[in-house]
Amino acid sequence: MNKAVIYTRVAGENPEVTEKELLVQSKRCREYAEQKGYTVVDEFTDTTHIGTQPNFWRMMEQVKKGKFDLIIVNGLDRITRNRSYYYDLIFELYKHDVCIAIVEQIGGDK
């Protein structure tokens, strides 16, 4: 199974900047999926601050249902800035055979 979802998030006050940033994140993630041979089956987007991400939690419900095997994010900070939470997330994904791909590492390196 080569099914992936994309998760994008931005918490900004300016709607134009928010929309542009979401499009950039989505484009980078889609390019990554194409390069790696994944089929993107859904995209989840939040425009809220960390901790209040309704579509992130909707995506996690889909994880439990086995709907895909990879989550693609543009950067780790799109999901969390808390390393402890990140490790809990990885463990939860591991239980359901789902991996996470981070397109841009810290510092913008691919």
* Average pLDDT taken over every residue: 87
CATH superfamily: Resolvase, N-terminal catalytic domain
Strand content: 15-25%
Largest sheet: spatial strand order:
2-1-3-4
Question: What is the number of E strands?
Answer: 4
- What value does the Rg take, in angstroms? 13 Å
Broad CATH class: Alpha Beta
**From the coordinates shown, what is the CATH architecture?**
3-Layer(aba) Sandwich
Order of SSEs: EHEHEHE
Summed up:
The protein is of the alpha/beta class and 110 residues long.
Give a written overview of the molecule:
The chain is an alpha/beta fold and 110 residues long. The protein has one domain (7-108): 3-Layer(aba) Sandwich (Rossmann fold). 42% of the residues lie in helices and 21% in strands. The chain has a four-stranded parallel sheet, with helices on both faces. α3 (83-95) links the parallel β3 (70-73) and β4. The longest helix has 22 residues, at 15-36. The chain is globular and about 35 Å long.
List keywords for this structure.
110 residues, alpha/beta, 3 helices, 4 strands, single chain, Rossmann fold
Layout of helices and strands:
Layout: E1 3-9, H1 15-36, E2 39-46, H2 54-64, E3 70-73, H3 83-95, E4 99-102
Parallel strand pairs: 1-2, 1-3, 3-4
